[in-house]
Amino acid sequence: MRHRKAGRQFSRNTSHRRAMFRALTANLVAHERIETTDAKAKELRRVAERLITRAIRLGPVAYTPQKDLGVADQAKRHAAQLRMGRFLRRFAVVNSGGEERRVDLIEKVFLDLARRFRERPGGYTRIVKLGRRRGDNAPMSLIEFVELGAGAAGTAPVAEEKKAKKGAKAEGAAKAEKGEKAATKAEGAEGEKPAAKRAKKTAKAEKEEE
To answer: To 5 degrees, how large is the angle CA 118–CA 127–CA 57?
Structure first.
């Protein structure tokens, strides 16, 4: 029996499991959407949403500029950031627009995510099923924030990406049709030229005979 043993173990000990979730949470905060197995995505949701909830509970103190805060509020936010830093690593490198930039993950949670979800009572992430992985047939999922930021990697939601792909396919089909029409016209024009030459030759031959 597994009384009072909530959560999936993933065949790992405590330290290994903690390290895994630290890495997954850091990647989710940095890129705002990651692809992983279905079981890991469900457990990661619990971990990541608790961090955001802790930042939101500070209220406006979490995202107010430092110069506008009093000494007590500054100390309050600093203590909350230190507590979060025990689990979430500080920096990550994100590639956006072909350029790499360094992101402070703890500041992003307090200044960006806490402001973005301040009116939302939980449920900051969504999980989208992607099917099974080639090789081990593991069920894969995409976990992302319900409201993606402007600088996120792949900011378009999955539905919008599908629409964009459909639009690209339609454009490709239209271009192919235009190309086929142009080719048929060119073939028709090339087919008409020899006929015109033959007519001229026959006319010249008739004149010479006369």
So the answer is: 20
